[in-house]
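Researcher: Quick test of sequence recovery. Tokens follow.
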């Protein structure tokens, strides 16, 4: 069984993150802010931004057996959405299918509910991303609805699902 740890970002993670993130299969299921190709400079910039993040954000590296394997975040909303936080994540392909992301989501939800003044965590995976949807469902997230053609990726309209979990 792999050892999973969520931790603060370190600059030394950049080369491994750049290698793992430079995968069209990862970029295809994330927002356009996640570039492809993904370079060392992209990883360095991302890590610097995570390290400089302010309150209301949990931006963490996923380590598997001590090695950087991906990223997971909770970003608290503002104004009328201040008691909600959006969950985002990705995991390098060598780590897929091992239950790692299911564990990581469980851990960050516990952290979020204990460290942030929130009552709701939500995620918006593309409807086609069945693996991500399953991770959310295994963690007690409920499908609240489908936003038909709610996103455009690579000039193609995509349905998005809205999942949420409330504070226990």
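Model:
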């Amino acid at each position: 069984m792999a050892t999973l740890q969520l931790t603060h970002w370190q600059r030394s993670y950049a080369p491994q993150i750049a290698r793992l993130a430079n995968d069209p299969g990862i970029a295809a299921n994330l927002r356009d802010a996640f570039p492809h190709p993904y370079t060392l400079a992209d990883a360095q910039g991302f890590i610097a931004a995570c390290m400089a993040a302010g309150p209301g954000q949990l931006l963490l590296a996923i380590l598997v057996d001590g090695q950087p394997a991906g990223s997971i975040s909770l970003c608290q909303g503002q104004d009328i959405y201040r008691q909600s936080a959006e969950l985002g994540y990705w995991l390098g392909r060598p780590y897929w299918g091992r239950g790692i992301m299911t564990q990581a989501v469980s851990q960050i939800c516990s952290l979020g509910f204990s460290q942030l003044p929130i009552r709701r965590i939500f995620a918006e995976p593309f409807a086609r991303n069945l693996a991500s949807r399953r991770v959310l469902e295994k963690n007690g997230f409920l499908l609240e609805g489908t936003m038909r053609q709610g996103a455009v990726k690579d000039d193609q309209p995509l349905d998005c699902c809205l999942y949420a979990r409330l504070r226990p």
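The first strand starts at residue 4 and ends at 7.
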